[in-house]
Structures are given as structure tokens and as C-alpha cells.
Design a protein that fits this description.
By secondary structure, the protein is of the alpha/beta class. It has twelve helices and eight strands. 46% of the residues lie in helices and 13% in strands. Helix 1 packs across helix 2 and helix 11 packs across helix 12. The longest helix has 17 residues. Pathway: Amino-acid biosynthesis; L-lysine biosynthesis via DAP pathway; (S)-tetrahydrodipicolinate from L-aspartate: step 3/4.
Length: 295
């Protein structure tokens, strides 16, 4: 279906906090030109919790339109409300996304049996291919490999974005789900090792600011050119880290504005813009990544 560098796309906002569709189109063109392998719109990095359902679907629909078939589009369709996740999945199935990205229900803290029931209900209601999204640090629940293995038997479930920060999950997931099940890292800093262990790529925050570098990094890794991948990863490592010096996506939106990719670094409340000290840290990382010059 796809592999390599998949950007967890930010949602650019105007200074007034409304979706900036002009900057969104610019971002899509930037990723296509830079070799990004797929675009994941309206995930956590896209600030999906703060957009209305109408805005959420409008952003995904716009990304599908702007890509015009040039790269696959993954649409965030997860929710802690199973009925809402079904509504989003059905809507995205109609608008032509390649797959949905379905985060585990946050705040509810469902059991493994409840997670099984949640995803089963979604797949019974929509034929949209689903990439599961496990990010325990955000959601308060951990989708265990054994449960993923059972979910992998459901026809629409094609892969997982694994952001537990535990590299041993790669071998565990491969054992439970088989070789064809798609495994994507949700942690930029660990992503090269994730692929080295058998993963298929990354759903990346860093790629928002360093699209060409991330595309080259994972093209090298998937081709088995580990020395070249290591060289690129060392250059990007400070950026992997400093883009999380504050709550994602605050730092990466500031970085994208600094690079001229979007007009405003503004996130939507309850998030606020990056502090002066955070700006210094991210600017230093952009310099080390050779994305900006000195002075």
C-alpha cells in the first residue's frame, strides 16, 4: 500500500485561529515535491481534537483534492466515540482516501476486549482500510500486540502506527500479525531503529519541516543503505528531539512558519504558541539539520 516517510501533517491556522487553506495547499505541494511517500491528515499533529467534524472533514477533503492522486492520503478517523469513528470512516471512504488512521479511544481507558469491540464495530460499518494508532502517552490505553494480532484478521485492518516508544513491539507485532501487516513508527527518534527491526516506515512529525531529509532517510533505510541512513538521521536527530520541547504540534508549527511553509505558527486553544526559549531550541535544531543558515 505504502511505506517510507509519511508526514503527520499539521493543520495551518490563520492568526485568528481558522484553518488556512492557502497554506495547506502550499504544504501539500511541498510534500509532493520533496518526495514524501504519503500524507496523513487530521491526526493528533493536525490538532484533530480541536476541530469540528465539519472542519475535520473539510481539511481531509482539501488534502485529497490538493494531492490530486500524486501521493496517497491517510485520513484521521479515530475517536473515543465509536459512533463518531464510524461516521468519519464512512465519510472518508466516500471522499477517496487510501486508508484511515484510527487512534485508540482516548480518556475512556477501554480494556483489550473493549478495544477489540470498538475496532470490530468500525470495520463492520465501513470498508475503509484502517491503520490502527497506538499512542498510550496521549490516550491512556495501550493496544497490546496480541490484540493487534486478532484485529489483523479483520479484512480492513492493514497496519498500525506504533508510538509506545518500545522497540520490542516490532518483533512482537510481526509475530502476532505476519509479514504483510504494515508497521509504522510513531516516534521520529526511534524510527530508523524501528525500520531496522522490520518496520515499514514512519508517520512523522519531523517530516513537516524536513520533508526531503525524511524521504531520503527512509528511502536509504528501506533499500538497506544503513550508512547513508545513519548520516541523515544524525543530522536530523536534534530536530526529532526539539520538536517535542513543548506539546506537539506547537514546536513544529513554529518551525514550519520559520521556514516559510505556512503563514502563522498559531495552534488552536487550548494550545498556545511556542515560548521564546522554545523558539531558540527549535531554531538551533533547524540550523543543525541544515534547514536554515547561520545569521
Amino acid at each position: 500500500m505504502f511505506s517510507g516517510s509519511i508526514v503527520a501533517l499539521i493543520t495551518p491556522m490563520t492568526a485568528a485561529g481558522e484553518v488556512d487553506f492557502t497554506s495547506l495547499r502550499r504544504l501539500v505541494d511541498y510534500h509532493v515535491a520533496s518526495g514524501t511517500d504519503a500524507i496523513a491528515a487530521m491526526g493528533t499533529t493536525g490538532e484533530s481534537p480541536t476541530l469540528s467534524t465539519a472542519e475535520h472533514l473539510e481539511v481531509v477533503r482539501a488534502v485529497v483534492e490538493y494531492t490530486d492522486g500524486r501521493v496517497p492520503v491517510i485520513g484521521g478517523c479515530g475517536s473515543n466515540n465509536t459512533r463518531q469513528a464510524i461516521r468519519l470512516s464512512r465519510a472518508m471512504e466516500q471522499m477517496g482516501v487510501t486508508a484511515g488512521l484510527s487512534v485508540t479511544p482516548y480518556y475512556n481507558k477501554p480494556s483489550q476486549a473493549a478495544l477489540m469491540a470498538h475496532y470490530t464495530a468500525i470495520t463492520e460499518a465501513s470498508a475503509l482500510p484502517q491503520i490502527l494508532y497506538n499512542v498510550p502517552g496521549r490516550t491512556g490505553c495501550d493496544l497490546l500486540p496480541e490484540t493487534v494480532g486478532r484485529l489483523a484478521e479483520l479484512v480492513p485492518v492493514v497496519g498500525i502506527k506504533e508510538a509506545s516508544g518500545r522497540l520490542e513491539r516490532v518483533s512482537q507485532l510481526k509475530a502476532c500479525c505476519g509479514e504483510d501487516f504494515l508497521l509504522f513508527s510513531g516516534d521520529d527518534e526511534l524510527a530508523l531503529d524501528f525500520v531496522r527491526l522490520g518496520g515499514h516506515g514512519v508517520v512523522s512529525v519531523t517530516a513537516n519541516a524536513a520533508a526531503a531529509g525524511m524521504a531520503a532517510l527512509f528511502a536509504a533505510a528501506l533499500a538497506g543503505d544503513w550508512p547513508q541512513a545513519e548520516v541523515i538521521n544524525r543530522r536530523l536527530l536534534p530536530l526529532h528531539r526539539e520538536l517535542f520541547c513543548d506539546t506537539n504540534p506547537i514546536p513544529v508549527k513554529w518551525a514550519c512558519a520559520e521556514l516559510g511553509l505556512i503563514e502563522s505558527p498559531m495552534p488552536r486553544l487550548p494550545l498556545i504558541p511556542l515560548s521564546a526559549s522554545g523558539q531558540q531550541r527549535v531554531r538551533a535544531a533547524l540550523l543543525q539539520a541544515e534547514l536554515i543558515g547561520r545569521g
